[in-house]
Design brief:
Helix content: 25-40%
Low-confidence stretches: 1-12
Subcellular location: Cytoplasm
CATH topology: Glutamine Phosphoribosylpyrophosphate, subunit 1, domain 1
Catalytic activity: ATP-dependent cleavage of peptide bonds with broad specificity
Shape: globular
Order of helices and strands: EEEEEEEHHHEEEEHHEH
Distance between the termini: 58 Å
CATH architecture: 4-Layer Sandwich
Structural class: alpha+beta
Strand order of the largest sheet: 6-7-8-9-10
Number of domains: 1
CATH class: Alpha Beta
EC number: 3.4.25.2
CATH superfamily: Aminohydrolase, N-terminal nucleophile (Ntn) domain
Number of helices: 6
Largest sheet: 5 strands, antiparallel
Strand content: 25-35%
Radius of gyration: 16 Å
Function: Protease subunit of a proteasome-like degradation complex believed to be a general protein degrading machinery.
GO molecular function: metal ion binding; threonine-type endopeptidase activity
Length: about 190
């Protein structure tokens, strides 16, 4: 095919997912774009979810089918470890790294609750960021940079406002990120329920 892959043979991917823990709230947001090669395949993919009775937020980036598979596995681990996201993440990362089928999956997860924020990759990594902000996907560096600046220099903003503005900045810069945002939020009152 003269070095050009047919679009149907390319993985469906590209996105921006951002999590911010700020002033008692945890917000995860993502854009809705799915890209197939150099074509936008879908504008409104939902890449963020509430898990474990609404107490854990999760978002994914990467090949869509792979990401859904990993998200389902994480949810199983979360159930097995009664909502302990650190333990569930570590066990998922072990499986991901050693299981022959899972090893081939190309995706990343961001997971968070009121206390913890973790990034999980197929390399067996479970990373806890130094800041209460983390992002994955093609526009992650733009969104994360904007969010860190807003948390530091505009602390009066809510977590939702920071995530929305940061994703807007990423979507204005990254061609694989659109402005069809989806958000999920946990706050202190939900923690008490």
């Amino acid at each position: 095919m003269n070095g050009i892959e047919h679009p149907a043979m390319l993985p469906l991917h590209a996105t921006t997912v951002l999590v911010v823990l700020h002033k008692g709230s945890v917000v995860i947001g993502s854009d809705g774009q799915a890209t197939l090669g150099n074509t936008i395949a879908k504008h409104n993919v939902k890449k963020v979810r509430k898990l474990f009775k609404g107490s854990v937020l999760a978002g994914f980036a990467g090949s869509t089918a792979d990401a859904f598979t990993i998200l389902e596995r994480f949810e199983e681990k979360l159930q097995g470890y009664r909502g302990n996201i650190k333990r569930a993440a570590i066990e998922l990362a072990k499986d991901w790294r050693t299981d022959r089928m899972l090893k081939r999956l190309e995706a990343m997860l961001l997971v968070a609750n009121q206390e913890d924020l973790l990034m999980i990759s197929g390399n067996g990594d479970v990373l806890e960021p130094d800041y209460p902000v983390a992002a994955i996907g093609s526009g992650s560096v733009y969104a994360q940079s904007a969010a860190r600046a807003l948390v530091q220099h505009a602390p009066h903003l809510t977590a939702m406002e920071i995530v929305r503005e940061s994703l807007t900045i990423a979507a204005d810069i990254c061609i694989y990120t659109n402005h069809n945002f989806v958000f999920e939020e946990l706050n202190e009152t939900e923690k008490q329920l």
